[in-house]
Amino acid sequence: MTGISVASLIALCKCLEVSADYILFGAENNTQENAVNILLSQLNEKEQIYAEKLLQVYVDSCKNR
User: Fold this and answer.
1) For residue 14, pLDDT beyond 70
2) Secondary structure class of 61 (helix, strand, coil)
3) Using alpha carbons only, how large is the chain's radius of gyration in Å?
4) What is the pLDDT confidence band of residue 31, given thresholds at 50, 70 and 90?
5) Rounded to two decimals, what is the model's pTM?
């Protein structure tokens, strides 16, 4: 089984004007806007991908403490 790249998912979401939750799970996730989402929304697609990678490194380092 293969998956979709983050870049492709973001592009698809933008094109269809739906959330990733809708594409991946078939339903909207009614979460409130939070600081991270607000900051990410200010970035272009390439910057969002880079930010996601940085955030993943941070999360992984927190788990390894």
Assistant:
1) yes
2) helix
3) 13
4) low
5) 0.48
